[in-house]
């Protein structure tokens, strides 16, 4: 009798495991299809964020959920702006610390983000969906004086961004690129894409 119970529970857990594996494969395949379409991904996330904001404004509630979502998005944004290898921890022989190459004969070190763009988008989208779902449950609608939360968030944002911008200036890196670099050939003077 114990073998029957054990056999049926093993069979159901195996079936559940197969369903979870199949779901995770479908989810990953969908993410892989979205990967090259950055503009569409971000446009859909902006629409999702606007839907969340409209839900909060029209219902006049869920300010704690909004504040928590804003803090989480701020942390993601800071990780997106920060280099994977922090130059503050990577000291060279000179007293100024490491810098990005400024001359042709120096070593090229590309800017690699701590949080890549796709993972940034994925985390923002997932958290916004979770926040939107939370707005349908009254237990998350905690009464609070929302102007205090707005002022606290603005203060926290300004302090955090000021520190991040100082870090960027001190170690001379820019986390954004504006397209492919174009180089001029010495022989013809033509501009070539690289």
TrEMBL record:
<keyword id="KW-0812">Transmembrane</keyword>
<keyword id="KW-1133">Transmembrane helix</keyword>
<dbReference type="InterPro" id="IPR004932">
    <property type="entry name" value="Rer1"/>
</dbReference>
<comment type="similarity">
    <text>Belongs to the RER1 family.</text>
</comment>
<feature type="transmembrane region" description="Helical">
    <location>
        <begin position="144"/>
        <end position="161"/>
    </location>
</feature>
<protein>
    <recommendedName>
        <fullName>Protein RER1</fullName>
    </recommendedName>
</protein>
<keyword id="KW-0472">Membrane</keyword>
<dbReference type="Pfam" id="PF03248">
    <property type="entry name" value="Rer1"/>
</dbReference>
<feature type="transmembrane region" description="Helical">
    <location>
        <begin position="40"/>
        <end position="58"/>
    </location>
</feature>
<dbReference type="GO" id="GO:0016020">
    <property type="term" value="C:membrane"/>
</dbReference>
<feature type="transmembrane region" description="Helical">
    <location>
        <begin position="64"/>
        <end position="82"/>
    </location>
</feature>
<dbReference type="GO" id="GO:0005737">
    <property type="term" value="C:cytoplasm"/>
</dbReference>
<comment type="function">
    <text>Involved in the retrieval of endoplasmic reticulum membrane proteins from the early Golgi compartment.</text>
</comment>
């Amino acid at each position: 009798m114990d073998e029957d119970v054990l056999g049926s529970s093993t069979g159901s857990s195996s079936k559940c495991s197969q369903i979870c594996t199949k779901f995770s494969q479908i989810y990953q395949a969908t993410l892989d299809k979205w990967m090259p379409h950055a503009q569409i991904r971000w446009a859909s996330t902006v629409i999702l964020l606007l839907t969340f904001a409209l839900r909060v404004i029209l219902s006049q509630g869920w300010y704690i959920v909004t504040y928590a979502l804003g803090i989480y998005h701020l942390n993601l944004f800071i990780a997106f702006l920060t280099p994977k290898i922090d130059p503050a921890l990577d000291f060279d022989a000179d007293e100024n610390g490491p810098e990005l190459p400024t001359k042709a004969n120096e070593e090229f070190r590309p800017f690699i983000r701590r949080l890549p763009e796709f993972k940034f988008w994925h985390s923002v989208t997932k958290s916004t969906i979770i926040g939107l779902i939370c707005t349908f449950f009254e237990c998350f609608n905690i009464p609070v004086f929302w102007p205090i939360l707005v002022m606290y968030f603005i203060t926290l944002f300004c302090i955090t961004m000021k520190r991040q911008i100082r870090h960027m200036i001190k170690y001379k890196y820019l986390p954004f690129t504006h397209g492919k670099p174009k180089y001029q050939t010495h022989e013809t003077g033509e501009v070539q894409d690289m």
